[in-house]
TrEMBL record:
Record-linked Pfam families: ABC_tran
An annotated Gene Ontology molecular function: ATP binding
Protein name: ABC transporter-related protein
SUPFAM superfamilies linked: P-loop containing nucleoside triphosphate hydrolases
Alphabetically ordered keywords of this record: Amino-acid transport, ATP-binding, Cell membrane, Membrane, Nucleotide-binding, Transport
Statement: the UniProt record of this protein carries the keyword ATP-binding: yes
Residue ranges of every copy of the ABC transporter domain listed in the record: 6-238
Amino acid sequence: MSDHAIEFENVLAGYGDFMILNNLSFKAKRGAITLLLGPNGAGKSTVLKTLFGLLKVRAGRIRLDGQDITGSSAKDLLVQHGIAFVPQGRNLFGQLSVYENLELGGITLGMKTTRERIPEVLARFPRVKERMHSQAAALSGGEQKQLEVGRALLLRPKVLLIDEPSIGLSPLVVADVFKLLRQLADQGTTVLMVEQNVKSALKISDEAIALESGRRVLQKSADELLNDPNIERLFLGGAHAAAPAAAKA
Ligand SMILES: Nc1ncnc2c1ncn2[C@@H]1O[C@H](COP(=O)(O)OP(=O)(O)OP(=O)(O)O)[C@@H](O)[C@H]1O
C-alpha cells in the first residue's frame, strides 16, 4: 500500500457555477499531519468540505488508501471510511451536557458502543472529563474545542479533518490542542489541518501544502518551511510572486 492516505487528482469543486478548487492535485501521508496554507479564499476549507462529501466533485478523483471515494456521502465517509470532520467555529449543542454531546457524536455507532467508548475519549481530556455533566456552553473555548475533537474521536477515525482549531483560543490552550493532534498522528491517524497560526502549526506538522486560487503551488516538509525565510510570503500568498505580498494581520 502507498504511504499516502489521501489523494486528490485534478479535483474541480466549488459553489454553484463558481469553481474554487481548480484541478487540484495533492497527496497527504498516512499517520502524518498535513497543513494546508494559503491566503484567504485560496480554497483551504473547501478542500476539507470536498473531502468530507459536503461539496460535489465536478471532475477529478479523490482516493482514500487507494480506494476511489469520489462522490461518497458524508455519512458513508464517516461511517464506512473513517473520515471525521471538525469544522471551524463552535459546533456543540450548547444547552446539552458534555456527556450528551458525546452520546450524539456516536449516533452512528449505536448507544451501547458509544457509551463503551466515551470513557476512552474522556481519558484524553481530564478537564473536560471533570465537567462531563456541565452544559457544553459552560466550558471554556479550549475545552469546547477539545470536546469537539473528542466527539470526532469516538468514531476512531482513520482521517481527521480539522479547520482552524486555534480560533479564539489562548496560546496555552492551542498548544494543548496541537499536542493532541500530534499524539493522534503518532498513533496512526492521518490529520489534514487548516490553520492560520502557521508557525505553531508547522512545528507539529509533517508536511505543508500551499494553495493559491484552488491550486497547489507548493508542498514541502514542515521543517524545511519553518526554516524558509519566505515563510510569511507563502502563508499570505504569492508563492510565485516576485515581491512579497502585502502584510496582513
Ligand atoms: N458556502 C459558500 N457559498 C459560496 N461561496 C463560498 C462558500 N464558502 C466559501 N465560499 C467561497 O469560496 C472561496 C474559498 O473559500 P474557503 O473557505 O475554502 O477559503 P480558505 O482558503 O479556507 O480561506 P480562509 O482562510 O479565509 O478561511 C472564497 O472565495 C469564499 O468566498
